[in-house]
Write a structure and sequence with these properties.
This protein has about 80 residues and is of the alpha+beta class. Helix content is about 40%, strand content about 10%. The protein has 3 helices and 2 strands. It has a two-stranded antiparallel ribbon. The chain is globular and about 30 Å long. The termini are far apart.
């Protein structure tokens, strides 16, 4: 693992209770595309989606059970915010 990958793995473990390997498996399941709109992650950054009602945002750490899929930036920022 590169230092950037190690840093991302640590961040994912601390915040979302998942590993970088698990997130990469989710990317493969989703064909490296957004779960909502299908935009390819080669053009957009992937964001981990989670059910905001499950864990209070102020804690900045989530239980891991509320993880859903990977979203592109526009869907993470605008679509999910409107739906929730």
């Amino acid at each position: 693992m590169t230092s950037a990958e190690r840093a991302k793995d640590i961040r994912l473990r601390n915040i979302y209770k998942m590993t970088l390997e698990e997130q990469n498996e989710k990317r493969v399941e989703q064909n490296n595309a957004c779960a909502i709109c299908g935009r390819d992650f080669t053009m957009f950054t992937a964001f981990q989606d989670h059910l905001h009602a499950c864990c209070p945002r102020r804690l900045k750490s989530f239980c891991g059970k509320c993880n859903r899929g990977l979203l592109c930036y526009p869907c993470n920022k605008f679509v999910v915010g409107i739906l929730e």
